[in-house]
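F.,

This is the one I mentioned.
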């Protein structure tokens, strides 16, 4: 049990020495690109198209869930022979 404690201090010292030896290159500053206003309208159209498509899928999924629930309820309430 005490063996790992004896190895802990040298391991921490070795790790700290390694961390100090690393050279970290400075990051390149990011440049801010202003949007091209010519593309803004088409991007809005694309977003609108995607939202409409998403809503259509959600409505279809909702209808399918409701149809499935109705069919299961009908099956459960049907008299057995």
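My design for it:
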């Amino acid at each position: 049990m005490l063996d790992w404690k004896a190895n802990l201090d040298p391991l921490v010292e070795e790790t700290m020495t390694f961390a100090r030896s690393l050279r970290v290159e400075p990051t390149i500053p990011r440049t801010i690109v202003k949007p091209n206003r010519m593309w803004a309208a088409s991007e809005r159209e694309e977003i609108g198209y995607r939202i409409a498509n998403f809503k259509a899928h959600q409505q279809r999924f909702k209808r399918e869930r409701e149809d499935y629930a109705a069919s299961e309820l009908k099956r459960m309430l049907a008299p057995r022979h």
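The chain has a mean pLDDT of 85.

Talk soon.
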